[in-house]
Specification:
Elements lengths: L2 H19 L7 E5 L5 H9 L4 E4 L2 H7 L8 E4 L8 H5 L4 E5 L2 H14 L4 E5 L16 H10 L4 E6 L12 H18 L5 E3 L6 H6 L4 E4 L1 H4 L5 E4 L9 E4 L1
Parallel strand pairs: 1-2, 1-8, 2-3, 3-4, 4-5, 5-6, 6-7
Antiparallel strand pairs: 9-10
C-alpha cells in the first residue's frame, strides 16, 4: 500500500474511533512523525494533506527542515534538553514535552529573546514508569501555575506516552487519567487546555476514544524507519545535507 492508501486507512480508523466516542471527526488531528525520514517523505505527506509534522530530535530537525518543502507546521514531540531550547524554538511552533519548571522557564526566556511565543504542552507521566520523562500528576499544578505567570509561552494542554504493550486496550487507563487531569486542572485554574497529545501507531484509536486531539503517527504512515545521518558541509549546522544510508 502506498502512502496515500495508508493515510486514508488511518483517517478512516480515526473517524470510526471518533464515532464510537461521540466526537466529530474533525476534533482530532494527525501529526506525521517524520523522525529518520527525509524531505521527500515530508513532501509526500504534505501533498497528501497532512499539515503537521513531528520531530523527536532537535539536531535531526536542524539538518532536515531547511531542506523540506515550505508549508508544514513543525512540532517537537521528543524530549528537549535545556541546552537545545534556542535551536528548537527557531524551528518549532509547538513543544509537546515540557517536563519541568526549569525547562518551562528556559523556554520562556529564550522565546522572549527571539520575539517568539511558542505553544507548549506539559508532559505528564501518568503510567509512573521510571524509564519515561514527564511530570508526575501531583507535580503538574505548580508548573501550570508558573506557566500562567510567564509572558512568552502559551500553555495549550497535556502530552503523554503510554506504556509499550502488545495489547492497546491496556493503555486506556493512562489516557483516561490524562483526560481526567486536564478536566480537573481546567476547573481548578479557570483556563482552557484544549490539546491532548496522546496515542501513536499502535494505540491511537484508544487514545481518541479517551479524548486525544493530536495523535502522533510514524510507522503506520511511513513504514519501517531508515537510518539517517547529517553530512556536515561546514561547522554551521544549517549547512548539513540530509543523507539516508
Amino acid at each position: 500500500m502506498d502512502f496515500a492508501g495508508r493515510l486514508a486507512a488511518i483517517r478512516a480508523r480515526m473517524a470510526e474511533a471518533c464515532r464510537r466516542a461521540g466526537r466529530p471527526a474533525e476534533s482530532v488531528e494527525l501529526i506525521a512523525v517524520t523522525k529518520t525520514f527525509g524531505p521527500d517523505a515530508v513532501r509526500e505527506a504534505w501533498e497528501a494533506g497532512v499539515r503537521i509534522m513531528g520531530e523527536n530530535r532537535v539536531q535531526e530537525a536542524a539538518a532536515k527542515i531547511p531542506q523540506c518543502i515550505a508549508g508544514p507546521e513543525w512540532h517537537l514531540i521528543g524530549h528537549l534538553q535545556r541546552n537545545k531550547v534556542r535551536p528548537a524554538l527557531e524551528r518549532f511552533s509547538c513543544i509537546h514535552a515540557v517536563d519541568s519548571r526549569r525547562l518551562l522557564e528556559q523556554i520562556d526566556g529564550v522565546a522572549g529573546s527571539l520575539g517568539a511565543r511558542p505553544s507548549i504542552l506539559l508532559e505528564i507521566n501518568a503510567s509512573g514508569e521510571s524509564s519515561k520523562f514527564g511530570l508526575r500528576p501531583e507535580e503538574a499544578p505548580a508548573v501550570i501555575e508558573r506557566a500562567l505567570e510567564l509572558r512568552h509561552v502559551t500553555l495549550e494542554g497535556l502530552m503523554t506516552m503510554a506504556p509499550a504493550t502488545p495489547d492497546p486496550e491496556t493503555t486506556r487507563p493512562v489516557f483516561a487519567r490524562i483526560r481526567e487531569c486536564r478536566d480537573r486542572w481546567e476547573q481548578a485554574f479557570g483556563l482552557a487546555l484544549p490539546r491532548l497529545s496522546m496515542g501513536m501507531s499502535g494505540d491511537f484509536e484508544i487514545a481518541i476514544e479517551e479524548g486525544a486531539t493530536w495523535i502522533r503517527i510514524g510507522t503506520a504512515l511511513f513504514g519501517n524507519r531508515p537510518k539517517w545521518k547529517p553530512e556536515r558541509g561546514s561547522e554551521d549546522q544549517e549547512e548539513q545535507v540530509w543523507v539516508i544510508d
